[in-house]
Design brief:
It is a single chain. The chain has 94 residues and is of the alpha+beta class. It contains three helices and five strands, in the order E-H-H-E-E-E-E-H. It has a five-stranded mixed sheet, with helices on one face. Strand 2 and strand 3 form a beta hairpin.
């Protein structure tokens, strides 16, 4: 990614999955969620699946600390997650 937030040098997926890395989310297990999604999608952070369906991004904060841990798929926020919950959410977008 460049300094232009909406300008990317590599193709991105149809669905952008953002996993919060803020303090509340970190304390409540966002790292385990990220690891689970990396495993399920078979990509690294900031990676895009081969079928261009998903791009997985860590973000500093999504501003939903009361729902921690949180992830967003496109513009939809999902909170109070376990790693298994996060993996099931992606099934809805497949």
């Amino acid at each position: 990614m460049t300094f232009y937030a909406q300008f990317h040098l590599k193709p991105r997926g149809r669905h952008i999955v953002r996993v919060c890395r803020g303090t509340a989310c970190h304390v409540r297990g966002s790292l385990a969620i990220m690891e689970k999604l990396k495993s399920v999608l078979k990509v690294e952070e900031n990676g895009t699946t081969e079928d261009l369906r998903f791009t997985l991004e860590p973000v500093a904060c999504l501003g939903a600390c009361g729902l921690a841990p949180v992830l967003m798929v496109n513009d939809e926020t999902h909170g109070r997650l376990t790693p298994e919950d996060a993996a099931r959410i992606l099934d809805n977008y497949a």
